[in-house]
Amino acid sequence: MHFHAQRFDKAFKCFHNAVQCPKGLGNPYIHLRLGQLYFEQRLFDKAADELTRAYMGGGIDLFMEDDARYLAFLETRISL
Question: Mean of the pLDDT values across residues 35-51?
C-alpha cells in the first residue's frame, strides 16, 4: 500500500523487513518491490541486483503488472 501511495520510505522499511522474514529471501515479489524502491532512490546498482533476483524467481510475468520502466531498466543491465 505504501508503494502504490508513493510513500517510498515507509514501503522500503516494510520490504526490507519482509526480506529478512522466513521465506522472505528469494521471494520474487519482495525482491521486485525492493528493486523498484532502490530505483526510485536512484540506487541503480542495488535496483538492478534486486530486480534481477525478482526476474530469476518470478520471470517476466511478475513485471507485467507494474510500470514498464522497471523492466526497461533491467533490460539495460541483463539479457532477458
Answer: 97
